[in-house]
Each structure stands twice: as structure tokens, then as C-alpha cells.
Predict the 3D structure of the following.
Amino acid sequence: MNGKFMKTAIASVVAASALGIQAAVPANAAEGDFDLTIMHTNDTHANLDMVAQRVTLVNQIRAQHPNNLLLDAGDVFSGTLYFNAFQGQADLDFMNLMKYDAMTFGNHEFDLGASAEGHAALGEFIGGADFPFVSANVNVADDKDLAPLDNNTYAKEFSNGEIYNGIIKEIAGEEVGIFGLTTEETRAISSPGAVEFTNYIAAAKEAVAAFEAAGVNKIIALTHIGFDDSEAYDNDQLLAAAVAGIDVIVGGHTHTKIADPVVNNTHGEPTLIVQAEQYNKFLGQLDVTFNEAGVITNHAGTLHDVTKAASDAKALEMLKPYADEIDAIKNQSTGAVAKVFLNGERGEAGVRNAETNLGNLITDGMLATAKTIDPETAIALQNGGGIRSSINEGDITVGEVLTVMPFGNALAIMELTGTELKAALEHSVKDYPKESGGFLHVAGLKFTFDPGAPAGSRVTEVQVEKNGKYKKLKEKDTYKVATNTFTAKGGDGYTSFAAAYEDGRVSEPGNVDWEMFINYIKTLEEVNPKTENRIVPKNSK
């Protein structure tokens, strides 16, 4: 990556545009040029309260730019009560209304894979779509819900509601190739089950070759690999540098705000990278001019602030029954009252780098449930990335709980050696004081670690509770440990848990996290948890 590209990248993730929607590509196009407007969204995560404003923006842009595409870069699933209640169907109604042209899979599209229903909801979401899904590096052949929808090809003739490696879309007589990529990290951070993910660079090179063999010289990569995500997995900047022939990368996953396209010229022709932040806050617009050879000669990008747009009347009418049902769910009481603020915040002393009272409450509830299933269960662990919100003082509603735990993760009980458990605790604090979704909240044990020691050698003491007393962890002993199936299968990089799962040392009772939590706090009635020095950072020097 050269210095010029770095400066462009840094500058481009700062700016945002005003709402005005104007044709941005110069009008003095040469003969044979082709103007295209790409509208794009990503990481909306079931944030539908402002979807009627997005509909207005899409309609306005389409009216001014007849040569257009509307693309989504994944992670429609998970994040709000709209998803918990409707499992993508509410989002789909509006995507069909807006006439999306294609979508790729985000990692969160696979969040329900560990449930008894597997990917049934995702299959219904795909099957009901008035647009195709694209991903060149996702193999769904062994998934019973998704395999019947898969074509495993690059298609000029394609059907809505099905999966392709890529499609060729004809716009005003011009052919545009669109292929998808999904992060290989999905296996570690979601629950894909039998779905496999192949190398993104190899898949992208194959896609470009397939399109070029079909005579297509305008190629869009619709990706959910992140703008600047870990190089150990994948990201859009590495993709642009490694694969020639991609003209535009419409990205997602890192929730990056890129108003002005990032330009990569590694291959002598520009590759533009865009992303529209998160949560339906922005609608991205990229205007490009291709010359006859399929090279971008002019471009302009902008992010339209959805909050500043008027609401579309038809969309508002469609939203009302969904919103009414969500309001009813939000208002249902769990039967418990929080006597203190329950801390599920991010940032300093938040759930991704510190013990919190909410983390303790969740693990206490998980342990209580697990003991009713297997009385030998001694410990419970909850990844901080699975705690998505706080709960205010006062009556605790169902809506608040679902917002805290939106993924519906199921209970697993692992049989671990003391050595494996200690290795997991080392992994939990390896990034401290930086935030990590894999930071573990604990019940049934307490431990001390040295933040100044090298990662992997930080844990100085572990004690396990038995009959009200704490005793030193014995590395050769075996312990039964409750967690969620995501973590038990090695999510967030817990290789010792993954090994136990592969060895058949994990049972899956299937109790859902938010249901366990509600049942537990009902028994308490008044909820007043404290931090109890379960996780103690203590410098040795």
C-alpha cells in the first residue's frame, strides 16, 4: 500500500454529505461511456424504525438516476426486537418494497444456526426475496435449509430468492457483474453449522475470471469482509490490492463510515471502496462513469443521512403493525425490578474488558439453570460480545432483556480440564485493557491476572467455588462449565472449547439465554447485583 493510498483512506472515512441528491458525475461523458449509480447499505441489523426514510431516499435517487443498482452488503439479521420477533421477515418486506438488486451474506445471517431450527429462518428470508443472493466463497451444499436454494454458478439468467456465486445484471444495454464475499471469520464469530467459507482472494479471482470470460468488463464485489478488519482473515483493502479487475467494492462488516470512496490503484486502474456505516443511519450513493473498456474515469460518493429524509407514506403504513407488536413486547414486564443500573456498556470498565454487575447476573442465571440440568456444573462463562445493552433501574421489561441478548444463544455444558479452563481465561484477558468480544464474565470462579505480563501468561490465580468456599483450580481435575453454544464451539477464538466440542465433551440442553435470564430474575424479584472481584487485574510489579 503506497502513501498516497493511505492518505486517501484516512481522509475518506471522515467526511459525510448533506442530504441534497444531485447527479455527481460530470455530464460531458465521452461517446461509449456508461454512467451508473450504486445505492448501498450494510450492517442494518434490523434497525427498522427509520426504514420509511430510507425508502424515500431510494425513490428520490432512482428518479434522478435511471441507471442504478441497490445493493446490501450483509448483516440484516440480529440486533433489535424486530429481528427477535420476525427473524428477518419485517426487513425483507421493506427490501422487496425498495426493489433491492442483490445482497451478500453477513456473518450475522448465520446467527441462528445453533438453534434447533438451524438456518430455517435464513432459508425463508432468501426464498422470499425479490432479489438474488450472491457469495462466491460460501458453500451451503451441506446445509439442509440453504442447499435447495443454491446454484453455485455465475449467471446471466437468474431467479430471485436463490443463491449464486455472482450474477450478470443488464442495465441500459450494459452488463455489470456482481459477486459476493463473506468473511472467513464467520465460523469463529457466528453459528454457520455445516456452511463452509473458502479463501476470499481465490474466490474473487475466480469470479473476475468468470465475468471476463463472459465479456463483462464492469465488476462489483459485494463484500462482508470489513474495510480494515484483521489481516489474519480478510478485508477490502487487501482484496483490492490482491485482485485485478474489480472496479467497485461495496463493503460491510466493520461498520465503517466511508463518504468519499477509497481509491486503490495497485493494478493501474482504480478500484473504489465504499461502506455506509451501520444501523440504517445512512444510504450510500456512488456515481461512476465507465469508459468503453470498463475502466472508471469519473466517480463521486456520498452518504445520505437517513434521519434528515421525510418518511414514505406507504412504508410507514407497512411498518405500523410491526412497530405495534414490538411496542407490546417491549412493555411486557419480566416480573423483576432492578434496584441499580445494570451495566452492559462498552468502553472503559464495560462488558468487553471488565467485570460488571450485569455480566455477573447473567452468568449467575446461566449457572442456576445449568445446575438444574446437570448438578455437577460448577462454572458459567458469558462472552462480553453477547451482552449488547444495559438495563436501567426500575421494572425490567422483556424488551430490555431481548435488547441485551438479541442473538438467542443456547445453553451448552462443557467438560473441561483445569488446564483447558485456565487457557480460556488467558485468552479472555489477552487483549486487556483493549476491548474484546471474547472477554469472559464468570460465575462459580474468580481469578486474578497481571496486565503487564505477556499475553498467554497473565493469569496468576484461579479459584473455583464449591459449597460456598473457594479452592485453587487444579489443572488435572475436570470441571463442568456452562456457556452458550457459540462460545462452546470455539467462537471468539476459544480453541480449548472447540477441542472439547470436537471430542464430544459438550452437551447442548438448548435453553435460550434470554429465557434463562428472565426465569432467573423472576425468582429474585428485586435485582441488586454487585461486582464481587470475580475478575481482578493486579500488576505484579
